[in-house]
Design a protein that fits this description.
Helix content: 40-55%
CATH topology of the largest domain: Rossmann fold
Low-confidence stretches: 1-5
CATH superfamily of the largest domain: Response regulator
CATH architecture of the largest domain: 3-Layer(aba) Sandwich
Strand content: 15-25%
CATH class of the largest domain: Alpha Beta
Order of helices and strands: HHHHEHHEHEHEEHEEHEHEHEHEHE
Distance between the termini: 72 Å
Radius of gyration: 26 Å
Shape: elongated
Structural class: alpha/beta
Largest sheet: 7 strands, mixed
Number of strands: 12
Number of domains: 3
């Protein structure tokens, strides 16, 4: 067996021990079905005796110009991939394709630090998936310039990359029509506006200055409905959360119900909508009589709670992004969505 500091055993040494060519040894590790069973056994036994650990992964990837790995740029801390229900469903779809194609998965967290671009650039991957970020994110220029396939989930649009996601503006416009029906004091519980993720309560904020594309498009769609319904969007309360998290959103959900006694709240995810339902229950309010509530994504709990929501398949969107990152051709169309109306709206 090899010891720390010892020279790495080479493929040529294994070939000499067995009396075969180095190419045969290579086949034993990379295409074993091309080697006779007896030869495969002899090579593997000799390799074990010599302490040969197989072809060096870096050298092999350089020869093939292929790493067998997809990189997912999160735009969040690493724990987000496991904590956020939306991210989990999306990454499940990515992982399914990786399993089917025999490909690895590299999660690359980026949080706005000076080292983000270097971390993404140095990743040994064949293609990238970028979870929703902002137009000014320097990581976008990095992935664009590497000449590898790139999928961006939810935007922003980048030359040479394919955006995967639903029409957030159209879905928000339709959902607002259901949520705000019969309301006198409608309100919005929103995703973060920008990367500072500062929670706050605003009135009629300018949607065009919102940096996250998904948040911006959903707010624009809500304003579209307000214009059609004669609602003054300049007076619309919009509570901004720091994270897409039910517990973290509790304070902002309570602020909406207390500050203006909102009687309809359109939340930008089911998790945020659940926070509103929790706040209403805590105050003894009835849904939808006292406050109508709606969300996005159709979480499994949404049906149990009778939540009106936008149904989309994040798992399928993850699969599509993975295929793009692997260089496969995919249909250039938006993901599908539908408004699922239940008992939480009037």
């Amino acid at each position: 067996m090899s010891t720390p500091g010892a020279a790495r055993v080479t493929m040529a040494e294994v070939a000499r021990r067995c009396g075969v060519s180095p190419m045969t040894v290579s086949y034993c590790y990379n295409q074993p079905d091309r080697v006779a069973p007896d030869t495969l056994r002899r090579v593997r036994e000799a390799a074990a005796d010599l302490g040969y650990q197989g072809p060096h992964p870096t050298a092999r990837s350089l020869r093939r110009r292929h790493n067998g790995v997809i990189g997912v740029v999160l735009g969040e801390h690493l724990a987000y991939a496991f904590e956020d229900p939306q991210a989990r469903r999306f990454l499940t779809g990515v992982a399914e394709v990786c399993r089917e194609r025999g490909t690895g998965l590299n999660l690359i967290p980026t949080t706005g630090s000076a080292f983000d671009a270097d971390r993404v650039r140095s990743a040994s991957v064949d293609g990238y998936i970028v979870w929703t970020t902002v137009e000014a994110d320097p990581v976008l220029a990095v992935v664009k310039g590497l000449g590898k396939p790139v999928a961006v989930h939810g935007g922003p649009a980048v030359d040479g990359a394919q955006v995967v996601g639903i029409d957030n503006r159209a879905s928000a416009r339709e959902l607002a029509a259901h949520t705000f029906a019969g309301a006198r004091r409608p309100a919005v519980l929103s995703f973060p506006f920008d990367r500072d993720r500062r929670p706050r309560l605003e009135t009629g904020p300018d949607a065009e200055r919102v940096e996250f594309p998904v948040t911006r498009e959903r707010l624009l769609g809500i304003y579209d409905h307000c214009r059609e319904a004669g609602i003054d969007s300049r007076r619309l309360p919009v509570a901004v959360v720091a994270r897409n998290d039910r517990d973290h959103a509790a304070a902002m959900a309570g602020a909406l119900l207390d500050s203006g006694e909102a009687d309809a709240v359109l939340a930008m995810s089911d998790q945020l909508a659940f926070a509103v339902l929790d706040a209403a229950q805590h105050r003894g309010w009835c849904v939808p009589e006292d406050v109508a509530v709606a969300g996005w994504d159709d979480d499994p709990e949404a049906e149990r709670q009778g939540l009106t929501t936008i149904t989309q398949n994040l798992r399928d969107q993850g699969r599509t992004c993975a295929r793009i990152a692997l260089g496969e051709r995919t249909p250039g169309r938006e993901a599908t969505w539908t408004a699922t109306v239940r008992t939480s709206t009037r």
